[in-house]
Structures are given as structure tokens and as C-alpha cells.
Amino acid sequence: MNQGNRGSTSSELLVLQFARNVSREAIAVLGERSRGQGLDLRVPPGTGMAFARLPFPAAGLLKDLQANSSIARAWVQQVPWILAGRDWQEEDTCIEVRGRRIGGGGLSLIAGPCSVESATQLSHMAHVVGEAGADFLRAGAFKPRSNPYDFQGLRKKGLEYLRETSRESGLPVITEVMSVADLDAVAEHCDVIQVGARLCQHFDLLHELGRIGKPVLLKRGFGSTLDELLLAAEHILSSGNPRVMLCERGIRSFEHAARFTFDLNAIPILKSLTHLPVVADPSHATGDRRFVPAVARGAVAAGADALMVEVHADPEEAFSDGAQSLEPAAFRALVNDLELLLPALGRPPLRGKRTPASPTAEDLYASRGR
Ligand code: PEP
Ligand code: MN
Fold first, then answer.
1. Are the C-beta atoms of residues 335 and 109 closer than 8 Å to each other?
2. What residue's CA is closest to ligand 1, atom 3?
3. Protein residues whose CB sits closer than 6 Å to any atom of ligand 1
4. How much is the average pLDDT of 314-331?
5. How close is the Cα of 251 to the center of ligand 1, in Å?
6. From ligand 1's centre to the CA of 7, what distance in Å?
7. What pLDDT was estimated at residue 64?
8. Could you tell me where the beta strands, DSSP code E, fall in 224-335?
9. Of the candidates 357, 351, 301, 302, which has an alpha carbon nearest to the alpha carbon of residue 329?
């Protein structure tokens, strides 16, 4: 993977982590001096680091740099991602959103309908999933559909319902952005911005997400390798936004018994390569609600930091992804399973506040209609 510096054949990357409070002048001097030594030092703004491809063996140069008081750490690495990597940050990133957390050891639950369908539906689903123990409500206002004749989402109206429901229920909301043009509106109405599988490598969008002060849930493209996923995250991180979580949601394989093939390997591999939280989405991976709980439990056992599950009060009538949506009772049963599983795995209990399920949730929905 070539990140610039034409002419260099080295895959080694020199990385400098600046000392705290280093001045712009000191960075400029360093850049100047490095150029004199044949190094094309790049300094992504706001990240506290600089990097260069190494055109020659680095031992002497590294020693010099390590002695420089503007530099906290200098090292050479083989992998092309920097800020996403464990060399940059050994300990897990924990992303905090309105008192809810993702990453750092516990298991977080993200749940909700695939699409925002109406204000009533969303508020009901917030109630159902919140009561069952979800930490985040997730629903799409902008829907990336393969078929242009399928429901495309309520768009701006859907965003308003999301914000209103979040305010009402106290649950932070996650929703997808599909274009740079909609980014500010989406950011204004939600707590975490989702980048869908189909947009995993929309680099202009990833760069713009760098300037947004909201966490990003980045889904793996179904044709993306883990390297490509990490580099997609690196686009956001190096553009100034450190709050990124990755989501395994199934990849394309020759197997068509399921909608996609859930890559269980991805979870421990990502956990070893990156400090970023790893979310598992068994709903889009299986495409079939019958298999969602088993894959969800597997993902948790493999070390996922969060589960993202689609839940719908009446899946047969869902505007999108009904076949893979759990009914509320099945979601509650999954949460029960997880409560049993976590201690056996030596993991902390679920984060979401667990209150006994109230029968009024379904009643409310039935009585208000959609
Ligand atoms: C979704 O989360 O509803 C969705 C469309 O997912 P994906 O981008 O993984 O297909
Ligand atoms: Mn969906």
C-alpha cells in the first residue's frame, strides 16, 4: 500500500508521537530538518503524530529523533495504519456517549429496527430495547438499498424522530449517513454516526467524518479485507476524529445459505491489531432471525465489545430487513443468554440498566398503531 512519497520502495513507516504541548514552530523545525535528511515527514493536523516512509535504514535516524525533546516516542512499523494500531495505543479505546460506553472490557448492546418507520414505531422500539437492556437505539433514516424501488428511508423526517425519541427515552441514538451533503444534518440529530458497509471506502465521507465531533460506527464493507477496514478507520482518525468503532457485519463468500458470511476470525484479529472497539452485527450477517442469537453469542465469546441487533415489533411488516429482525421476546431472551454467558467468559456484566420487561411496551404499540 503506497501512502505517497513516490520513489520510496520501503513498506516501513517511521512514526513520531509528539511530546505534549509541542509547539507548531518545533514541528515546523523538525519537518525542515527531516527534509534535509531525505525524509518526507507528513503531519496530519490534530493527531499529535507525524509519519514518513523510510527510504533508507533508520537506525541512526531513529536514535537522533528519540533524543529530540519535541518527540515523546519514535518507532518504525510495518503495518500501514498508525493511529488505529496497538503500537500507537496499547490500551483499548473506550468511547463514552452520554454516559453509555463502548469498548474497554464490558459488553454494550445496540438495538433497534432497521428503519425508522414512524415516530410511534421508533418510540415504542426505544422502549422495548431500552427496557431489555440496550445501551443504544439504532435505526436508519437514510437507507442504502440495493433496489431503488425498495423503501429508501424517511430521511430528514426520520432524523427528527430519532432526536425526539432519544430525548424522550434517554437512549443515545445511532444512525447511518449516506452522503457528505447530509452529514451535518445527521450529526446534529444523532449521537453516533454509522457508515454502512457499502460506504466503508467512501473516502471523501471518511475525511469529513474526521472533522465531526461525534463517534463513528464504521461497518466493514462486505468485500473489504481487515486491512482495508483498518485503513478506512485510519482515514477518519487521521482527519482528526479519534472516536471510531469497527463493525463486523459479514462478508461475501461462495456460501449462500446465509445472507453473508459472519467472519468470526475478524473479532480476535481486530482486537489484536487495533485498540478501537469492535462491534458485531449478526443480523446483517445471517439475514435470518433464527440464527442471530447463536452468532451473537459466538461473537461475544470471541471478544466483541458490542453487539448490534435488529429488533422489530412486527418483523413481517417491517419496511426493511424484517427477516433478520428479532421480535422483542427473542431479543429479551438473547439478553438473558448473554447475562449467563458473560460471567462464564470472565467478562463484566451487561452495561445497560436492566429492569424487568414491562408488558405495557407491546400494549402501547398495539394501542397507538403505527
Ligand atoms: C444497516 O445497518 O441497516 C445496514 C444497511 O447495514 P450494512 O451497511 O451492514 O448492510
Ligand atoms: Mn438493516
1. yes
2. 114
3. 114, 140, 144, 196-198, 219, 249, 284
4. 98
5. 12
6. 40
7. 87
8. 244-248, 278-280, 306-310
9. 357
β-sheet bridge partners, residue 278 = 246
Residues in the chain: 370
Give the model's pLDDT for residue 155.
97
Closest ligand to residue 319's CA: 2
- Model pLDDT for residues 157-212, shown as the tens digit of each residue: 999 999 999 999 999 999 999 999 999 999 999 999 999 999 999 999 999 999 99
362 to 120, 123, 124, 128, 254: CA distances (angstroms)? 12, 12, 8, 8, 40
DSSP 317-367: G-SS-GGGPBPHHHHHHHHHHHHHHHHHTTPPPP-SPP-PPPTHHHHHHHH
User: Max CA-CA distance within the chain?
Assistant: 74
Q: Where are the beta strands (DSSP E) in 78-182?
A: 95-97, 100-102, 108-112, 136-138, 173-176
Residue 196 alpha carbon to ligand 1 centre in Å: 5
In degrees and rounded to multiples of 5, residue 322 shows phi and psi of -60, -40
**Three-state secondary structure call for residue 318:** coil
Q: Write b or e for each residue in 61-85: b if 16 or more Cβ atoms lie within 10 A of its Cβ, otherwise e.
A: bbeebeebebbeebebbebbbbbbb
* Axis-axis angle for helices 360-368, 119-132 (nearest 10): 170
> In whole angstroms, what is the distance from residue 265 CA to residue 268 CA?
6
Q: How far is the CA of 323 from the centre of ligand 2 (A)?
A: 10
Residues with CB under 5 A from ligand 2 (ion): 114, 321
Q: pLDDT value at position 332?
A: 98
- Our CA dihedral for 331, 343, 305, 271, rounded to 10 degrees, sits at -140
Query: Which ligand 1 atom sits closest to the C-alpha of 144?
Result: 5
Integer CA distances (angstroms), 105 to 171, 348, 351, 353, in order? 21, 7, 10, 17
Q: Which three three-digit cell numbers place residue 368? A: 397507538
Residue of 177, 219, 229, 261 to mutate, ligand 1, most atoms within 8 A of C-beta? 219
pLDDT at residue 8 is higher than 50: no
Q: Which residue has the higher pLDDT, 59 or 227?
A: 227
pTM over 0.85: yes
Tell me, in angstroms, the distance from the centre of ligand 2 to residue 117's CA.
12
The residue whose C-alpha atom lies closest to atom 10 belonging to ligand 1 is: 197
Nearest to 284 by CA among 255, 314, 306, 252: 252
